[in-house]
Amino acid sequence: MNETPQARASRVAPRRARGPAPTAPERLLVALGADPDFIDGVFGDFAEEYAERLTKHGPRSAAAWRTWELARSMPHLLLCALRHGGPRAYLRIGGLLTTIMLPVAVVVVAILARDGAPATIDAGLHEAGNGFVVNNLGPVQLEMRVRDKAGHALQSDSVRFAWAAGSPLTMSPSGVVTCTERADATVRASLGTISTNVDVRCRPVHEIRATTWIDFIEGDTTARHLPFEALGIDGRPVMELRGAVRIFNSDIAALEGTSIRAKAVGRTVVVVEIGEKEANMMVVVHQRVQTFDPLRDDQRYVARDVRLARGDTVHWAVPNGTFWLKYMPRRAGEAPPTITVVGPIGCTPGDGIRVRRMPLGEFGTYCLVHGTGGASVMLAHGLGGAAWVEGTLAIERVELR
Amino acid sequence: MPAATLGKLELAALLAVARLDDEAYGLAVRAHLAGVTGRDYSVGAVYTTLQRLEDKGLLRSHASEPLPVRGGRSRRHFSVTAAGARAFREAERTAAALWAGVGSFTKPRLA
């Protein structure tokens, strides 16, 4: 009844020798002072129930049970081992915990100690020439980059700013600057004993002018610059820009910086954000077709090549329904052919002007075919002008809901 | 000799061993406790309780022959000692004394 752990261990040792080799948790528990016989019983139960669950529920469920059961049993078993092991067990577990905790403590101390005193301050790598380009019209916070000697980033909230040179600038000591007109100034940014001069280039953007569409033909994989321009308060283009470009569906087209490349037939939207201004552009990748009529229901974005010699005229049937009719010249700036719609079809902005010139060189009109069809589009190249007119006529069918 | 003080799980395990008789080993005791109390005690919790009872002299144990179903390990069978029997009888008497006279209050009453 009052058998010591040592006596119990020696009593059961010969029987243990017949069993399987002890696992790592068993060895740990016995090393801490647990009764080997007791541990044998515990792990025997694990083995028996595992075998039963293996048969009933499969290997994954059985393994999950064993892992969970071992995890929640270990605290009980460790305490039991300590109780039975006496002072030697406490010394052993103390050593074990030290072995585990020491590296953890070293890592924690290293993490806590990694942030040293501020050593450098700058405008960040993304800003050229240690300065800021501000495209906002409203107040904007200048964000400095502060690092310690080891190069770790530190909080920059406490950086203080003061105007140093150049154009007058509306700026708070915390670095909130308001650019109401084009200006170039130098400001001093300070944090404790470190400071630096940074350039602030005010280039407020009043408007972003962009095309309505960016049209591609299937198979055209050349990257194109996004067709937009940012205009300042004086109406002149702003060339120094900081902002973001996003595309809604990158399966249709992919952004490469400020360029875009077609990937698959379909339609998506590109958003350009500069300062407080934003512009949206439809990106349409058209399927190249030989005829506009008939079209399958799923053929919503289609295009035909246009090549007309002087004096040529072609009539192409167009599908029923509502669609955008667009013409893209092969070479930018080339005049389109004369485009007229014929039959039970109405196009904006009125019957007199069939195709209108849109901003940044687009030609497009919104058309509705009335009744059951029979409408067509006529393209004619007059006797004057270039020997050939070349481009693409595209239809983007609109689903009215 | 006064009966040993028993905790709730200790009493439940002691009674389970008494109830299971020859089949009282860890796995069976754990399954019995789960059935009676509705709680899924861990293998470790059940075994440490059984060993505590053995240390108190309320249970004794012996190992079976190694069994294939247990990966060549033995089952550790427990049985109640005379002291163990006295302990749960004492617990029963104590409980009965505590419950005496409170039966009428345990009936549900309408608010």
Walk me through what this model shows:
- The complex is a heterodimer of chains A (401) and B (111).
- With 401 residues, chain A is of the alpha+beta class.
- Chain A has four domains: 23-103, no CATH class; 118-203, Immunoglobulin-like (Sandwich); 205-288, Immunoglobulin-like (Sandwich), CATH 2.60.40.1080; 290-401, Sandwich (Immunoglobulin-like), CATH 2.60.40.
- In chain A, 24% of the residues lie in helices and 39% in strands.
- Chain A is built from four helices and 28 strands.
- Chain A has helices at residues 5-16, 24-32, 36-57, 59-113; strands spanning 118-122, 131-134, 139-141, 145-148, 153-154, 160-166, 170-171, 176-178, 183-191, 194-202, 207-210, 213-217, 224-225, 228-231, 243-247, 253-256, 259-262, 266-274, 277-288, 301-309, 313-317, 321-329, 338-342, 345-347, 356-358, 362-369, 376-380, 388-398.
- In chain A, strands 12, 15, 18, 19, 20, 22, 24, 25, 26 and 28 form a ten-stranded mixed sheet that branches. In chain A, strands 2-10-9-6 form a four-stranded mixed sheet, with no helix packed on it. In chain A, strands 1-4-5 form a three-stranded antiparallel sheet, with no helix packed on it.
- The longest helix of chain A has 55 residues, at 59-113.
- Chain A is flat.
- Chain B has 111 residues and is mostly helical.
- Chain B has one domain: Arc Repressor Mutant, subunit A (Orthogonal Bundle).
- Chain B has helices at 8-20, 26-37, 43-55, 82-99; strands at 59-63, 76-80.
- In chain B, α1 (8-20) crosses α2 (26-37) and α1 (8-20) packs across α3 (43-55).
- Chain B starts with 7 loop residues before the first helix and ends in a 12-residue tail after the last helix.
- The model of chain B is unreliable at 105-111 (pLDDT under 50).
- Chains A and B meet through α3 and α4 of A and α2 and α3 of B.
